[in-house]
Design brief:
The termini are far apart. The longest helix has 12 residues. Helix 3 packs antiparallel against helix 4. Among the domains are: 54 residues, no CATH class; 76 residues, no CATH class. The chain is built from four helices and nine strands; from the N terminus they run αββββαβββααββ. A four-stranded mixed beta sheet has the order 4-7-6-5, with helices on one face. It has a three-stranded antiparallel beta sheet with strand order 1-2-3, with no helix packed on it. It is 24% helix and 34% strand. It is an alpha+beta fold. The protein is elongated. A hairpin with a 2-residue loop joins strand 5 and strand 6.
């Protein structure tokens, strides 16, 4: 009899799950309700436009318990990642993101006509010997078809050329060093 009473008390004190509107809740022994969720809550990343704002956020919020690290995603984006801890697992989330948005001329287009490439070189990169070399090289490239006809009275000769050619013989450098005007204003841009 005592054993049955103890088993009945144990059964009544166990959390009892039930579903309401697609959410699962548990009624605990003390009468409170808790929602059971399969995923951890993660904050939405806070987006800023400069590295100074990113540093100020990190200093102001001062997460001492969190494991944060900085990841350079691209030349125009830096993210601060953190770890959320739970009893079940750890998950890495993006806490802050600095994205340089006011950069003229940095688009995804890689192929462009020679005249647009020349303008892009002059507007996107700082003055250097390699930039001048690239601009000069672009100005020497000719495209199209060329037909040369010669007749000496006995025989006729026709020479045709099609494609791209350089107007003068020059050695083409396989690598050039260009320094962009800026991505983030706070840092000196590398070549």
């Amino acid at each position: 009899m005592l054993k049955e009473a103890i088993e009945k008390i144990e059964a009544m004190s166990k959390p009892q799950p039930f579903a309401v509107d697609g959410h699962t809740y548990v009624l605990t022994g003390d009468g409170s309700m808790l929602e059971v969720r399969p995923e951890l809550d993660a904050p939405d990343p806070l987006n800023v436009n400069s590295l100074d704002a990113l540093v100020a956020l990190l200093r102001e919020e001062n997460y001492e318990a969190a494991h944060e690290f900085v990841s350079v995603m691209s030349a125009t984006e830096v993210a601060v990642l953190g770890v959320l801890e739970s009893a079940r697992r750890w998950r890495r989330v993006c806490l802050y993101r600095a994205k340089a948005t006011d950069i003229p001329g940095w688009d995804k287009e890689v192929t462009m006509p020679f005249d647009e490439a020349t303008v892009a070189l002059m507007t996107r990169f700082q003055d250097s010997a390699d930039r001048e070399y690239c601009i000069r090289l672009l100005s020497q490239i000719t495209t199209g078809a060329k037909v040369t006809y010669s007749d000496n009275g006995v025989a006729s000769t026709i020479v045709t050329q099609k494609g791209a050619a350089l107007a003068e013989n020059m050695t083409i450098k396989p690598l050039v060093r260009l320094r962009p005007y800026r991505t983030f204003q706070e840092v000196e841009q590398p070549e």
